[in-house]
Amino acid sequence: MNANGGGGCLCYSEGDTASVITHTFEKEPPMRGEYPFRWTHMPYYLLRLDDGRYITLNRRHKPLGVLSDAHVVYEEHPSACFMKITADVARRLSWQGDESLGRIALYNGAENMLEHADHLAEYFKRLSLLMAIRCNALHAFS
Predict the structure, then answer these.
(1) Residue 47: inside a domain, yes or no?
(2) Range of the domain at 65
(3) Residue 68 in contact with residue 77, Cβ under 8 Å?
(4) The total number of structural domains that make up the chain
(5) Helix, coil or strand: residue 123
(6) Which is the most buried residue in 38, 95, 104, 130, by most CB within 10 A?
(7) CA angle 57-80-136, nearest 5°?
(8) pTM higher than 0.85, yes or no?
């Protein structure tokens, strides 16, 4: 949190050097219209659907990239796919180390991880694991 109670955005410049550019919000961004990129386009959690597929959801509980406030039927969304996730993989993906396969949270939504460099680094480690997992839209992995 910055000095006036708002959040910040970590942005990277071109080249190898990272620079921080702070964008101030009024405590929380508005519920309609403008959102931090991480709220709409970065994985917050994986939700296992009744048919065994997973859908990757953003901080707004929508599939990644969905900006609309309209209701989304997860089972009908084209991004849902089968993923081979074991209890061990779930534990390594979960920010809490939880082995549950039903809902796997990649970070603590109650905090702004941009304010905690160690939490952000841990999130990136979990993302690297997630990127290596294969997905299939048609059938479960054996």
Answers:
(1) yes
(2) 37-136
(3) no
(4) 1
(5) helix
(6) 104
(7) 130
(8) no
